[in-house]
Amino acid sequence: MNVNFEKKTIELTTAEMNEAKKYNSQAYMDLMGARRDNPDYRVVEIKAKKVRTDLGRIDMKTIRAYVKAHGNADQKAEFLRISTPTYTTDGLRIEPQPFFYIKKWFLAQFPAVKDAYAAREAEIKAINDAIDAMIDAAKTKAEEEARAKAQAEADAFLTAA
Description:
Blueprint: E1 2-4, E2 9-13, H1 14-20, H2 26-37, E3 42-46, H3 60-70, H4 73-83, E4 86-87, E5 93-94, H5 99-109, H6 111-160
Parallel strand pairs: 2-3
Antiparallel strand pairs: 1-2, 4-5
Helix pairs in contact: 1-2, 4-5, 5-6
């Protein structure tokens, strides 16, 4: 639950909203408390933000290129078996496996890919955390300077009087 003072709303995700609909649940009690504190605020349902990972961006082209470059003969043959349509001796067409099955197979056959993506995400997170820390430090420094300036002005005003 988030109380948005700018929009004058009490925001709940779908899961929180469903839980708050249950009388006497903790979410219900929390929502009623927020409504008592902010009687003119509207209760709105917001969509939870989906977090996309680089691993989710793997497509068939990437898988095909990686298997071709790094797979052994058995892996290449298995990849072709699951990713291309085949015909039986009777002429029956057998469709390829769905992409998500192929992706699951790929990540199981080549765990180094998953590890590389995880390492990259950890590296990006560390960089973003460092940037956030620098921003917080700059804000703190600016607040301290503003406070010191205001204190100096107040002291100068009081001593001049």
